[in-house]
Amino acid sequence: MSSSYDYLIVGGGTAGCVLAARLSENPDVSVLLIEAGKRDRHPLIHIPAGFAKLTAGPYEWGFSTAPQQHCEDRTIPYAQGKVLGGGGSINAQVFTRGAPQDYDRWSQQHGCSGWSFAEVQQYFVRSEGNARLGGPWHGTDGPLGVSDFPDLHALTVAFIEAGKQAGIPETDDFNGESQHGVGAYQITNRDRKRCSAATGYLKPVQNRPNLTVELHSHVRRVILDGSRVVGVETEAGGRTSTRRADREVLMTAGAINTPKILLLSGIGDPSALGDLGIDTVVESPYVGRNLQDHCDLDVVYSLRDKISVDRLLRFGPESVLAFVRYAAGRRGPLTSTVVEGGAFTYGDPSAPTPDLQFHFLPAAGAEAGVTATRPGYGCTLNTYFVRPHSRGSVRLASADPAAPPLIDPNYLAEDYDVDVSIEGVRQMREIMTQPAFSRYIEGEHHPGATYGSTKDELIRYARDFGRTAYHPVGTCAMGSGDLSVCSADLKVRGVEGLRVCDASVMPDLVSSNTQAATVMIAEKASDLIRADA
Question: How far apart are CA 108 and CA 122, in angstroms?
Answer without folding.
Answer: 19
